């Protein structure tokens, strides 16, 4: 009587068993996922002038590409949480400020993330997203984040060429000291706290995420000071210092 063929056996001269082929497919899929994850992480520092600069995540905060600024600002009050609920919110500034001023602005509200940008006239510079450790003193954590942004700019300068390298070098030089480079912050507060922030001097817009959304779920695309009519790309024809 002929025994049934083992489904995991290879034909004589075959290169792989069926089980071997299955494992090869699994390994290939894992390799692709790792590569995609690395590419996503590398894309967190994006040019502020080439359209939407977005940190990774699924819940978008900030204007849609090309959206009229007036329309964006008009819809923000409806995003605030219900009374008694707390939520993360993107606090967008009318101009860049120092980390010390940012710490004073947020007061006792926990800061989850800071968005840095070196303002250079008519020069596209990168938005740099830096997470802050929970529970750390805000002023010190913001200043440490500024230094990390400087290291990232220096790394960009070393790998890029031409104008992009020159821009990154200018950014790194700015971050070397207490620059006015904070353009947005992600804070956690209740409705009253976010309303107070929205009315604070220097704050241009506050958009809240739905209650329960965590910082890693956010995709940030802050409104930039130069975007006065629409969320469109900024010019990049100015001289680099």
TrEMBL record:
Q: Where is this region: Disordered?
A: 222-241
Annotated keywords? Membrane, Transmembrane, Transmembrane helix
Q: Which residues cross the membrane?
A: 23-41
Q: What is this protein called?
A: Uncharacterized protein
